[in-house]
Amino acid sequence: MAPISIRLLCIAVALAGGVANAQTTVYKWVDKDGKVQFSDNPPPAGTKDYSEKRVNAGPADEGQLPYATQVASARNPVTLYASSDCGELCTQGRELLAKRGIPYREKDAKDSLVAEEIQQMIGALQVPVLKVGTSALKGYSEDLWQAALDQAGYAKSRLPGQTGYKPQ
User: Fold this and answer.
1) Is 27 in contact with 48 (CB distance < 8 Å)?
2) Which part of the chain is CATH 3.40.30.10?
3) Who wins on pLDDT, 86 or 50?
4) How far apart are CA 116 and CA 146, in angstroms?
5) Integer Cα distance of 40 and 107 in angstroms
6) How many CA atoms lie within 13 A of 92 on its CB side?
7) Are 40 and 25 in contact (CB under 8 A)?
8) Considering Cα of 32, then 38, then 43, then 44, what sign does the dihedral take?
9) What is 62-151's CATH superfamily?
10) CA dist., res. 43 & res. 111, Å (int)
11) Rounded to the nearest 10 degrees, how much is the dihedral formed by the CA atoms of 33, 39, 45, 50?
12) For a disulfide at 76, which of 28, 29, 101, 133, Cβ 3.0-4.6 Å?
């Protein structure tokens, strides 16, 4: 890879989130024109002053989210209750959260403790359920989910520089 800017490097590292605990080395040096260079390849032969750093290329953590998203997430965390056989409604729910760049936790309704939690929360064992802060929405309704996320302070779409967010 040719030398790249730090912003592109951060994006590349964030996109590598599917590889858990992957490590990579990032090299930093000043080229002959006085520009700072970053690369995952060692600097050109003869470069005397350079540094290297091992970085984790795992999933983005909340510290890498835009500030507005961090604030909304701290005040009104989002949990999606779903199951593997939930079908199209759960898929649409996940897509909506991804489109908006919402950090969320997904819980599997097939787990007996999670099923009990859903039962206590909405009075039935039904998925999907979206919990935003303390409010729970039974079933998937794009309009209702959008309104709940808006009210909780989440951005209507991914913010500039924000990559996709995978659930915890």
Assistant:
1) no
2) 62-151
3) 86
4) 26
5) 36
6) 13
7) yes
8) negative
9) Glutaredoxin (3.40.30.10)
10) 50
11) 70
12) 133
Closest by alpha carbon to 5, among 33, 50, 36, 41? 36
Q: Is pLDDT at 130 greater than 50 in this prediction?
A: yes
> Is 53 strand, coil or helix?
strand
Q: Which residues pair with residue 50 across a beta bridge?
A: 29
- In degrees, rounded to 5, the angle at the alpha carbon of residue 94 between the alpha carbons of residues 89 and 95 is 95
* Distances, alpha carbon 52 to alpha carbons 5, 35, 42, 55, 96, in Å: 15, 17, 8, 10, 39
User: Do 74 and 131 touch, CB atoms closer than 8 A?
Assistant: no
* DSSP at 137: E
Q: Which residue has the tokens 């690369």?
A: 39
Question: What is the structure's pLDDT at 19?
Answer: 38
pLDDT (0 to 100) of residue 158:
79
pLDDT for res 163? 57
Q: Tokens 């808006």 correspond to what residue? A: 150
Structure tokens given for 45: 């032969």
> In the predicted model, what is the mean pLDDT of the chain?
80
Handedness of CA 19, 21, 14, 28 (dihedral sign): negative
